[in-house]
Amino acid sequence: MTEIPLEQHVAPSGEQMTVRELASCPPPERWNDWVEYDAKAWPRKVERHYEIIPTICFNCEAACGLMAYVDKETGRVKKFEGNPYHPGSRGRNCAKGPATINQVNDPERILYPLKRVGKRGEGKWERTTWEEVLDTFANKIRAAIVENRRDEVMYHVGRPGHDGYMERVLGAWGIDGHNSHTNVCSSAARFGYQIWCGADRPSPDYANARFILLISSHLETGHYFNPQAQRIIEGKMMGAKLAVMDPRLSNTASMADYWLPTWPGSEAAVLLAMARIILVERLYNGEYMRRWVNWQDYLAAEHSGEEQTFERFIELMIDLYAEYTPAFAAKESGLTEESIVDIARQIGHAGTAFAAHTWRAASAGNLGGWQVARAIWFL
């Protein structure tokens, strides 16, 4: 870091002032011994030496990058700041990231395993060891497996950040007992995605999109998954149009080019109507569909007596979804026919530069809501 002395400027202490180049964070080559002055010691200049350790925030599943400033004298974390070298968050964290220090210093933070010694609900606990915890759990799980009582075993976690690892472990044990916070808020959307693309949280390329459609309480609403929110803004800065389908005028909807306040539960009908418009007006990506849609299998299984061509497949799809007209979708959703047609055409014209996502309300709040995630793929 370059220091440029300015002789014409003098600090109140009488010392010569210096100017440093502005930077978003300390350079990595100095992370092993980063020096800052103790603000509480002002006006005295008291140096504090820190080791900067890259870590992540897990106050939501976005797992944005953080840098922990560890005081080399005390060994305690002094503060957290965003890590600009993290490829997802790029140092632009929401308030929850730096606030992680409150969790580290929480006086009621549990620092070691506890086991109940009284009756359930009495709040009586005593300290135990990790060895006892692991042995107790392992023996009980093994007994359940050996005695064919696998349905008595359940794994529960707050936010699953292991990206499928525990599902594989439980599957190896023959146990179907995974539960978490996301099973309540986003399981339906994740299921719809999983059965169509094999991933329960696909990540659209918002930054390079020409048209973006976000449905209900999606990943980017509020302070959740800010790496994607960053890229939505980048896409808009590059000219992308943003539409939000949500009965609420959410933070995202207030920044959108189009707000589509559908009645709850009608989202899939609107998406299917848009898909049919794209088919009827030949706005679909024919090359992609020919290669990646199993239209031959569909024709052979459902219409073996028909001409086995891609063109005939498109005609049959239009007939299959004949009831999903703009008028039908407008009646179901409360939107206007014109807005449904307009958005469908813009999606079609965006071609491969179309990005979309749904997550909570539309999928989780209605019976069969997982179909919303499926219907998005039709676009």
Keywords, separated by commas or semicolons:
alpha/beta, N-terminal domain of TfIIb, 3 domains, 4-stranded parallel beta sheet, about 20% strand
Brief account:
With 379 residues, the chain is an alpha/beta fold. The chain has helices spanning 100-104, 130-146, 165-173, 182-185, 187-197, 226-237, 251-254, 267-280, 286-292, 295-302, 310-320, 326-333, 337-350, 361-364, 370-377, and strands at 3-10, 16-20, 34-37, 47-56, 65-71, 77-82, 114-116, 125-127, 155-157, 178-180, 211-215, 241-245, 258-260, 354-358. The chain contains 15 helices and 14 strands.
- What percent of residues are in strands? 15-25%
Based on the coordinates given, report the CATH architecture of the largest domain: 3-Layer(aba) Sandwich
N-to-C terminal Cα separation, in Å?
50 Å
Major β-sheet strand ordering = 3-4-5-6
Output the helix-strand order. EEEEEEHEEHEHEHHEHEHEHHHHHHEHH
Q: Could you state the CATH homologous superfamily of the largest domain?
A: Dimethylsulfoxide Reductase, domain 2
Which descriptor suits the 3D outline? globular
Give the tally of β-strands. Answer: 14
Structural class: alpha/beta
User: Please, how many domains?
Assistant: 3
Q: Write the CATH fold name of the largest domain.
A: Dimethylsulfoxide Reductase, domain 2
Residue runs with pLDDT of under 50 for 5 or more positions:
none
**Residues in helices, as a percent range:** 25-40%
Mean pLDDT across all amino acids: 90
Rounded radius of gyration (Å): 28 Å
With helices defined by DSSP (H or I, 4 residues minimum), what is the helix count?
15
Major beta sheet summary: 4 strands, antiparallel
CATH class of the largest domain: Alpha Beta
